[in-house]
From TrEMBL:
Keyword terms of this UniProt record: Cell membrane, Membrane, Transmembrane, Transmembrane helix, Transport
Organism: Komagataeibacter melomenusus
Tagged with keyword Ribonucleoprotein: no
InterPro entries, per database record: PHBA_efflux_AaeB/fusaric-R (IPR006726)
Protein name (Swiss-Prot/TrEMBL): FUSC family protein
Membrane topology, as annotated: Multi-pass membrane protein
Length: 734
């Protein structure tokens, strides 16, 4: 007998795989992430097995609907799962009610029914764009449920009510099973979240410390800025660290809201914690290239030394103590440093040092309040109710996409009499609704469609090699686990998460696992798979070809929204008071969306300039609020108060001629306190002058950003679109 030795594979074939496995076991962070993913996958697949078993036991008409429900609601955070499940039930009930009503009204008019269905799905997509977190699933399930309930009832409209009850039963089975499995097998500890909040506060303090240590002496280097500008060109590492901090704060804020649905310790302090996190994001955003940090004189360096000493004290206090234990000492240290800044401001003869001292003492006040909100119950944050930003253009575009794709698929089914038409309708309505919950639906549409399309060959392999071998429920469950595992696992990957979600959710639709299980009809299977593949094509066409996004236009709208908010704030005639944080958080949401839009078309250098300018508008809004507060001081005389309000009145021209507004602010600052009288005027007049001067400087640094004829407001093929990002469009006189 002759043995043939197999050829040795090239050494580079398995090297990447072995390298990846080695990193998983040697890197603590990757090993922890792998364990988390494996634990979530095990819980999700266990929920699938129990839900499907119960659906078979209850003799439900569509048992795989319970599996689809598990794949949608499964979430590693139990609080998020509970919230998601509750809103999914609400959406299912609303969808079932609307489905019965539409069928009753248009039972004899299919075309009118399709039009009504398209309108409802469009409204659901718009609501899904507006709603935050898993509240959006109520809107998603509204349109999705209508199609699932209505499709089987088209041949027999009298069975619509039984179809609705069957669908609701399958959803409830999936939700209850998933919630029970995850709540029993997942540890729910509030101390883990409090540890993350503690670490985030320390990282924010380190971020501020790095700014004072590393970026204090960076001169103005922006070639497009006006003479005397304080707008500097900071290194890329600064922009990256700031973006990372803002992203961490946003994610932790969402995690707090999730945990509040399941954890009492978090729920009783939810508002204070979210207010404190919002203040931290405002503090991070306040440190931008315009921030005045002079270190020209010995006095300036001493001030920086005091700030750094205070920050080191906070780091030392939080090293071994929780925020709840050290907040009194920390706040006392912050207030001590703030008092020093105020005293230095009263004694300074330098206008630039005065602006810096005024700015830093206000930021110290924000740190003080943030520490109180994060460390104790009953702080000022409890009275705040943060608001989500409603981006109407994006919502209307998603509504149009959802309505259009629904109408097209229903008409294709109606005209061609395609037996698999309902399957295509089911997919496009569900996918369009789910995509509407994402920040960039068009970008995710391709990934969602690709993940769904990959489920077709997976379903073919499952039907050929796995399902024919089963002789009982355990093997059926194992077959489903093998098919669903790639989608469940990839949901944790930041790049392929949307595709993994599409694969995991819609691959369940590709399997003909009914009650009872009959022989598999190849023609029926391929007919359904073709419907899903056509749905993927239509999804991409609708979101990326027929109604594609215009990221430049969206960015321009966000910029003008920031300008309008400043205008309204200056002209409102009333102070925001304790609601100031709500305004700032709303504008910061716009800045985050602006960064995402710019990432699609802008060069990194231009993107950094635009984001820096957008964050400077937040500082400008804070200055406007402070100016209004100071204007009511008894030390502000009648003529001086009139000058302040006249200057604020010129904000009506901010979008037309920002330099005119800046000049008016400077004139008011001179009336309040000339530069040579800093030590002679009352403190309120000096503070008002400093705020007016800072506001003028910010506007003079970013006139092209604020102007409605700035470069971002023009289409790419216009010459004006290629002007320097922040340069003035016209002079003050123009």
């Amino acid at each position: 007998m002759v043995y043939q030795v197999a050829p040795t594979p090239p050494p580079g074939v398995f090297r990447p795989m072995l390298s990846s496995l080695k990193r998983i076991f040697s890197d603590d962070a990757q090993w922890a992430a792998t364990r988390t993913t494996a634990a979530f996958s095990a819980r999700a697949l266990l929920s699938v097995g129990i839900a499907l078993f119960l659906a078979f036991s209850f003799q439900l008409q569509s048992p795989m609907s319970s599996v689809t429900t598990v794949m949608i609601v499964a979430n590693p955070t139990v609080g998020a799962l509970v919230s998601k499940s509750v809103w999914r039930i609400i959406g299912t009930i609303i969808g079932a009610t609307i489905s019965v009503g539409l069928m009753a009204v248009f039972v004899q008019s299919p075309v009118l029914y399709f039009m009504g269905l398209s309108v409802v799905v469009g409204l659901a997509c718009m609501a899904a764009t507006f709603l935050r977190l898993f509240r959006a699933y109520a809107a998603v399930l509204t349109g999705y449920t209508i199609v699932i309930i209505s499709a089987p009832a088209f041949d027999n409209p009298d069975g619509i009510f039984l179809s609705a009850m069957s669908r609701l039963a399958a959803v409830v089975v999936g939700i209850v099973t998933t919630a029970a499995v995850f709540m029993v097998t997942s540890p729910r500890r509030s101390d883990t979240l409090f540890t993350q909040i503690h670490g985030l506060f320390r990282d924010t303090v380190n971020y501020i410390l790095a700014f004072h240590q590393g970026y204090s002496n960076v001169p103005a280097q922006n070639p497009d800025a006006l003479p005397g500008s304080t707008f500097r060109a900071l290194p890329t590492t600064f922009h990256d660290s700031r973006a990372a901090m803002l992203t961490r704060i946003a994610r932790l804020s969402d995690a707090v809201e999730y945990a509040a649905a399941d954890n009492y310790d978090i729920s009783v302090r939810q508002r204070e914690i979210r207010a404190g996190l919002a203040r931290l994001s405002g503090i991070v955003a306040s440190y931008h290239p315009h921030t005045i940090t002079p270190a020209d004189t010995e006095q300036d360096r001493a001030v920086h030394g005091e700030i750094e000493a205070m920050l080191h004290t906070l780091l030392d206090l939080t090293k071994d103590q929780a925020l709840e234990a050290m907040w009194t000492q920390g706040c006392a240290r912050i207030q001590h440093t703030r008092a020093i800044m105020i005293d230095e401001a009263r004694a300074t003869h330098s206008p630039r040092s005065l602006l810096f001292l005024d700015d830093i003492q206000d930021l110290l006040g924000q740190i003080d309040t943030a520490l109180q909100d994060l460390s104790r119950r009953g702080s000022a944050g409890r009275r705040l109710r943060l608001q989500p930003y409603l981006e109407w253009p994006t919502a209307l575009r998603n509504a149009a996409r959802g309505a259009l794709i629904t109408l097209l698929t229903t008409l294709i089914w109606y005209v061609l009499h395609w037996t698999a038409g309902p399957t295509m309708m089911l997919y496009v309505v569900a996918a369009a609704s789910l995509l509407s919950t994402l920040p960039s639906a068009s970008r995710a549409a391709g990934m969602m469609a690709a993940g769904t399309a990959l489920g077709i060959p997976a379903g073919l392999l499952c039907h050929i090699f796995l399902l024919p071998q089963i002789d009982g429920y355990p093997l059926l469950w194992l077959s489903l686990c093998l098919m669903l595992l790639p989608g469940v696992w990839l949901q944790f990957h930041p790049k392929f998460g949307v595709g993994g979600f599409g694969y995991g959710v819609f691959s369940t639709v590709m399997l003909q696992v009914n009650n009872p299980i009959h022989y598999y009809n190849d023609i029926s299977l391929f007919n359904g798979w073709m419907a899903l593949f056509m749905g993927c094509i239509m999804l991409v066409l609708s979101f990326r070809v027929i109604l594609p996004p215009n990221h430049r236009l969206d960015a321009a709208r966000l910029v003008m929204s920031l300008t309008r908010s400043l205008r309204r704030l200056a002209l409102s005639g009333r102070r925001q008071g304790k609601e100031w944080l709500v305004w700032e958080n709303l504008q910061l949401q716009k800045v985050i969306r602006l960064a995402m839009r710019l990432s699609f078309f802008a060069r990194p250098a231009s993107m950094h300039e635009y984001i820096d300018a957008a964050l400077a508008t937040l500082s400008l809004g804070r200055l406007i609020e402070r100016i209004r507060t100071i204007a009511g001081s008894p030390d502000i005389m009648g003529a001086q108060q009139a000058a302040i309000y006249d200057a604020l009145g010129t904000f009506s021209e901010l979008a037309h001629n920002p330099l005119l507004t800046a000049a008016s602010l400077r004139r008011a600052a001179t009336i309040l306190c000339p530069p040579d009288a800093l030590t002679l005027r009352p403190a309120a007049q000096v503070e008002a002058m400093a705020c007016l001067e800072q506001a003028a400087r910010i506007i003079e640094d970013i006139p092209g950003f604020l102007d409605q004829r700035g470069p971002l407001q023009w289409a790419e093929d216009y010459p004006a679109a290629h002007r320097p990002p922040l340069a003035a469009v016209r002079t003050e006189a123009g």
